[in-house]
Amino acid sequence: MSYTRLFDILQHQLKNSPKDDCLASKVNGQWKKYSTGQVIDIVNQTSRAFLKYGIKPGDKVALIANNRPEWNFADLGMMQVGAINVPIYPTISEGEYKFIFNDAEVKLAFVSDEALYQKLQNIKKDVPSLKDVFTFDKVRGAKHWNDFLELGKNGDNTEVEKIKASIKEDDLATIIYTSGTTGTPKGVMLSHKNIVSNIRATIPSIPVKAEHRVLSFLPLCHIFERMVCYTYMAVGASIYYAESLDTIAANLQEVKPHFFTSVPRLLEKVYDRIVAKGNELTGLKRRLFFWALNLGLNFDDRGENSLWYNIQLFFARKLIFSKWKAALGGNVIGIVTGAAALRKDLARIFNAAGIAVREGYGQTE
Fold first, then answer.
1. Is the Cβ–Cβ distance between 233 and 19 less than 8 Å?
2. What is the mean pLDDT of residues 259-288?
3. CA geometry: angle 27, 122, 92, nearest 5 deg
4. pLDDT tens-digit map of 13-62
5. How far apart are CA 154 and CA 22, in angstroms?
6. Model confidence over 306-317: pLDDT tens digits?
7. Reduced to 3 states, what is the DSSP secondary structure of residue 148?
8. pLDDT classification of 63: cutoffs 50, 70, 90
9. How far apart are CA 241 and CA 278, in angstroms?
């Protein structure tokens, strides 16, 4: 089937490239994987839970959490019943939460941990529209995600399907608030079509296929990573969520992804570590390392490299650059960076290494 609304993408994946590991995250030291069918079942249960709770089309629900499958379950589950996702950064102040919650008239919120739960408890009395806060992690005294899911257990999906059928591609899907650097945050209203059109435009531009694994660690509350993750689902790639920014290096070795998005600073750190190791080499190994490095810095990503250059590059990739790929898990074929400009020398050197690096941006508006 084709997809015109964001929640259609799961059925599209089920028909074209069903996965045993549609989504995965680390739980108690082990990767917990959800198949495409399991994700669809949980999303439908989530939709039924929203209806049982009393959420109606047009109601606003806030998501404040790290990247994890529950984020997707809540996101797609609420959209299937016409509720509007208001994703918010976990790092903003209580005052900013209060402004956004009141401006959007948020009725229900899901947060990842105790610290965020406490922030919302502190402002709850000042947000008349907010009925409840559920947590994804177990938090003493808080209503848990499983409690919410239980509302939709063993239910009939007829009402969910009826609402889904009524939702048009031009209907509002999400409100994403800007950072507020020029005053109070502004809520940007995006339809299903706004985002789906970007997914369709992105697919031909990135080398991600159904047989690939991807690692996700940029925040899903930002339109950049969120749109990219919908794109992964659309092509049928398996999404693995990093545990945290501190565990990216370890998670790269565990997941061995073929693709990920990043910020330039991470690639700068990888490059600096590699050069530092090169400086520790001696003799022939050191000369080979810096020969390959200088060769890479002269790479022309328009494909206008000479035959002699390409012959040298073949050996440089075998002898030196293969180790660069190993540091990123061994399988990586592409990276897209966002949030800031990527240094031109880094773009050249990674492309020379056989890792296609491109720049992207996530303009909420």
1. no
2. 85
3. 65
4. 999 999 999 999 999 899 999 999 999 999 999 999 999 999 999 999 99
5. 23
6. 898 889 889 888
7. helix
8. very high
9. 31
Determine contact, residues 68/156, Cβ cutoff 8 Å: no
* Cα maximum dimension of the chain: 72
d(CA 81, CA 167): 8
Is the separation of the CB atoms in 254 and 265 below 8 Å?
A: no
> Rounded distance, CA 273 to CA 279, Å?
10
Structure tokens that stand for 44 in this block: 């439908």
Count of CB atoms within 10 A of residue 137's CB? 17
Q: Residue with structure tokens 């090169």?
A: 278
Segment 100-110 mean pLDDT: 97
CA 125/CA 39 separation, integer angstroms: 35
Do 355 and 332 touch, CB atoms closer than 8 A?
yes
Instruction: Give burial (CB, 10 Å; 0-12/13-18/19+) of 260.
Output: buried
Give dist(CA 362, CA 223) in Å, integer.
6
C-alpha separations of 279 from 214, 297, 312 in Å: 31, 17, 22
pTM: 0.90
SS3 333: coil
Q: Where are the beta strands (DSSP E) in 91-137?
A: 106-111, 132-135
